[in-house]
What does this fold into?
Amino acid sequence: MRRGDRLLVIVLVVAIAASWIIARLPARGESLLAEIKVDGKVVQTIDLAKLTEPLEFTVYSGSSNQQTNVIRAETGRIRVVAANCREQLDVRQGWITRPGQSIICLPHRLVVTIRGESGVDGIIR
Amino acid sequence: MAAPANGSARPVSPARRLVTMAIFVALALALSVVENLFPLAAFLPGIAPGVKLGLANIVTLTALFLLSIPEVLGVIIIRVALSAALAGGLSYFLFSIAGALLAFAAMAPLVYRAGRFVSLASVSVVGALAHNLGQLLVAALLTRTLAIVYYLPVLLISAAATGVLVGLTTAFVLRALAKSGLIAHTPRLVAFIPLRDGR
It folds into this structure.
């Protein structure tokens, strides 16, 4: 290892630790609003912070409502548990927990986003 | 084809440069096909969507030692345009070109100036970091959100890992090329790949 290499390792370790800590900071907002949109229109809004027991429901979309996404919301988190889209990217993404995160199911034009009053997202906006 | 002697500065005819560029473009395209055969992200579902090996960076990094700056830029732009035409579309092009050009911009000064200070693996890691940052910036612009900072730790770690791999591979390639006498032992090459005389 040359001198520059050691420098880079140190910088990288610090950067990884710092960004990891920032990413793990819990959202401090009073509310954690999950918004479910189909085709850009909000079809449902859930306050994840105030949710006391799990909520599971199916969102139908498409011209004859043949497209389905099963969504599960729990206290502080939400995910897509099943869908009849081809790639299943939304299902594989798993839970989202923080403001600004979103799950997108492109074939069904479905977007699940978490909005919050504070946290990184609130500061940046 | 006469192999250039050790230390000769500009041994290469325009035709040979053009052919070298074409080979690099073809190599980069082939590498991206190989890369798609082993989708790294599939092994890390949920944790690291979009993480790639970045094999095309081997080509950019090697080209930086064999070609001039404008020629390397040409290779990058043609390669990205071709793979966008073959595989993706406009957004694919935007993502790739942002990443590729930033990686180039980060690595070129290091290749030319930092030879004895850093090793090739570090140059490649810096390139991978710049590549990921470029893509993150395009993603931020397209989605108009800065929340993707949450994805930063994953990208930093993967850039470090894949960057070292790519850097070591490039060092291997350059050493083999230099020993075979096919390429000139320019100062910037010798600074990264120590070569004993007569080998």
